[in-house]
What does this fold into?
Amino acid sequence: MSARRTVLLTGATGVVGRSLLREPGAVRLLPAARAAAVPDATEPVVRCDVTRERFGLDADAYAELAAHVDVVIHSAGLTEWGLPAERYAPVNVEGTRRVIEFAREAGAPVHFMSTAFVAALADTAPVPLRAENVCRNYITSKQAAEELLRSSGIPHAIYRPTNLIGDSVTGWTSHPQIVQQMSDWLGRGRAPFLPVHPGIRMDFVPQDLLSKAVLRAIERGDDEGEWWVTLGPEAMDVETCVGIVVKQAAERGRHLTVPPLLDADGLAPETIAEQPPMTRSYLSVLRDVSEVTRCSGGVLPTSMPELRDRYGLPAVDDTAAYATTLAYAARHLA
It folds into this structure.
């Protein structure tokens, strides 16, 4: 498209929002957040609460904002795992409903940040995801938000990223994420074993690949579609992932013995339950994330080949990007 589009970015202070704001692009990004300050923003912040009617704005301000916005990137959301379902509803579900209302007022398409983990709840899932899985309520909220968009009649694109890591070149990220936290725990030699499902892939995608895909789609006027921002069969296996953590630990003067990999399905409940509280928590998360991947077929669906062809996304070595992320985290996020 020749005209520079004005884009309202919800969740501008989050990991994805900050990454989008740092990515060069031919769009005008209006950062929307409840906070007054948004690092990396080049435009004034729109004080916005997606859980409230009209985003908490008065009628005139809301109408004026709608008159100037061409596209909405909806990145605001509660991404922490393990919370009750009712905690996710106000932001992830009702917040999406508010965004749809605004998009209808503005005549704007919506580019929505979902999660690749919705594959675990698909009708085609080879095994059902346990009700008590730590990720389930979060995934369900994203699935509900997707359905709201599909039934809205609003043009929309859905992006389903896997676990994001830092920038593919520098490792930069605005906040520690689950991958860095789990890797740091493992790198400190705290894991007595690793509960995983045989054959799964450790699918991590640098956050700048997601940002490039979203912004280039908007620049081209591609406002409809569903994209799995994952590596799928290209993703590393568990052994490779653990080997990178061990190597990174050695570079910091820690010698690690590789913990045994145990089939998560064959573990007796007490194997994890009898561990100290922090260890039990980390092992439970590892088991549950592994289960999500297993319920997604062991390998997550991917649109990466199409994204590379259509938007020129670089082919990134995930092992190198993961190592760079861990190095950055050790220096800046410890």
